[in-house]
Here is the input.
Amino acid sequence: MKKLVLILFVALLAFPLIANGSTESAAPMQLTFGSASAGGNFYLIGAGLSNVINNLFPNKYIVTSTETGGGSANVTLIQTGDIDFGITMSSSIADGLNGKLIEGVPTDKVRGFLPIYPSLFTAYALESTGIKTLQDFNGKTVGFGSRGGAPYAIFMDLFPKMGIQVGTVFTDSHNATAAAISNGQIDAAFCFSLPPFPAISEIEATKAVNFIALTEEEQKIICEAYPFYKPAVMPAGSYKGVTEDYATVSDWFLTIVSADLSEDVVYEITKALFENNEALLSIYAGLAYVQPENCLVFNCPLHPGVIKYLEEVGISVPASLRP
Here is the structure.
């Protein structure tokens, strides 16, 4: 009898500890969001999205934005498991899937998350240079952006096919490239951006800038060689020097997520971000393009958590975007 009473007493003492353990919240899940170097839109958006997720789920997720080498680096870092989310471009995704980022290894852990916005091929030069067409790039010093970026490799391949042999290739960040245009260090440059790109607008505050439209044949060559590029139009008024609509091509900026994250986690975060558009617009006005239907522009499989949300809101996901 005494033994039975002792057992019951010990069990009663233990019950509150068990109860407390079952009601305590688990530690927040730690996640990493790869952006780019400080100062650009990738950095701004990566930090902003991380903060929005943290604010929406204060006791559930802690998302840390980390500086990386940019879009191509983020595809690689998803594959190697070093980040959970990242910002990239459709061109970098294509390079990863084709084994060009990790030699011979397709980046098969990369899944589509949120669309960001379409970026337009923007070629420009000071009016004083007399450069008005891409053919005028022949023999000139031209800014290609960062050497590690997908556009650098792509246009090093494309320009010769278009009959363009630049004199010197200048590689640096797009902000530094715009500064080099402004001070006459280089003759022309191109980038992919959602206009107006602040660094280019800054040049226009004091100097006249020529913006260079693509010919129909140039559009065709670019889009046939790299199908993730699509024919596009830069609207009149995008910059002071863009006085009428002109032909260009677009490359979507996108966010990606690791296939290793669970469907439940990605679904919950996807739903929260799509349904809190005001919070996204507070980061950057271009995030107005973060709409469920724009997930269909991805050129890699979407994450099952994203697919679950899209189907929930009535969007049909094609087989090509399913893992």
Remarks:
- The chain has a mean pLDDT of 91.
- The domain at 29-118+252-321 is CATH 3.40.190.10 (D-Maltodextrin-Binding Protein; domain 2).
- The longest helix spans residues 2-23.
- The first strand starts at residue 29 and ends at 34.
